[in-house]
Amino acid sequence: MVAFLKGFFQKFMAKLFAKKGSVKLGLYGPPNGGKSTLANRICKDWLGEEFTKVSKIAHETREIKLKENIIIKNSDGKELAFNVVDTPGIATKIDYEDFIKAGMKKTVAKRRAKEATKGVIESIKWLDDMEAVVVVLDSTQDPYSQVNITTIGNLAARKIPVLIAGNKIDLKKSSIKKIKSAFPQYNIIGISAKHGNNIEELYNELFRLVK
Amino acid sequence: MPHQCVRCGKLYDNTAQEILKGCSCGARLFFFIRKEKLKEAKEMTVKLTDDQKNELEKDVLDLIGKEERKQDQPVILDFESIRVLKPGKYELDLVHLFKKEPLVFKLADGKYMIDVEATFNAFRKK
Hints:
The structure holds 2 protein chains of 2 kinds.
Chain A: H1 2-16, E1 23-28, H2 35-47, E2 65-73, E3 79-86, E4 93-95, H3 96-101, H4 106-126, E5 132-138, H5 146-157, E6 162-167, H6 176-182, E7 188-190, H7 199-209
Parallel strand pairs in A: 1-3, 1-5, 5-6, 6-7
Antiparallel strand pairs in A: 2-3
Chain B: E1 3-5, E2 11-12, H1 18-21, E3 29-32, H2 35-43, H3 50-64, E4 75-77, E5 82-86, E6 89-92, H4 94-98, E7 104-107, E8 112-114, H5 116-125
Parallel strand pairs in B: 3-4, 5-7
Antiparallel strand pairs in B: 1-2, 1-3, 5-6, 7-8
């Protein structure tokens, strides 16, 4: 009887103090929007280390990358644990000749194209596992693209909370206004993942997103 | 003639026995061709070299991750999620991919490959 009560008490205490599960946060969007740069920014800010490789050539991330248990604090001092998932860029066309133009050898370029195609499939397969998604868009580019509209539309259909990060606001051509007019029903934050501009605001929005 | 064998590309009429029994090449997977696409399918010329065709097929098998498995029953599919125009050139239909429909790879010379495992998983989830 004593052993039973002891076990019950231990279980009760464990449940009481069990850490709330981490929120699985996916970074989605077209290639070269800055998903990996944002993943690195988050990891640098809260873990003090970089997470993944970034490149100017599109489709650098061709596999799903997961960093678990990143504790993020908002401006009120509240803490939330996130599992950040960096995903390969979603594209409708992948052409090895684009990589050759960027200076790659033919065989390497073809392999990259194949892996990038696989990456798109993987990104989409993982979508259902996400509890919240940040769609990272390059704010210097036209937001009215098939990739953006299809991705954001599908997230809404799956009832996954979405925050749009208009990245690269440090660049002259950047226009958050255009993103806002393309997706008026969404919360949009202009950031520079590379330089950290407005990143606090993004963290605060993440808390509102998963509330 | 709206059915095409996914392996050899042979076209069959709606009422053809082969659709039920399997193609003369042994495959039991058929691609349904919409009437408006029939002309395009027939005209599809083989502009690729044999090496390119082999490379393309190898790439898609690699993408799928395994050899295409045979099935007892014929399967007819009328959508394609990924077009492989040439080795290293891909076109992806995001609408199909997001719907989690089976992965159908369309190869440039009229051949198709289907990710059977993804197909089963998609149906299992339903």
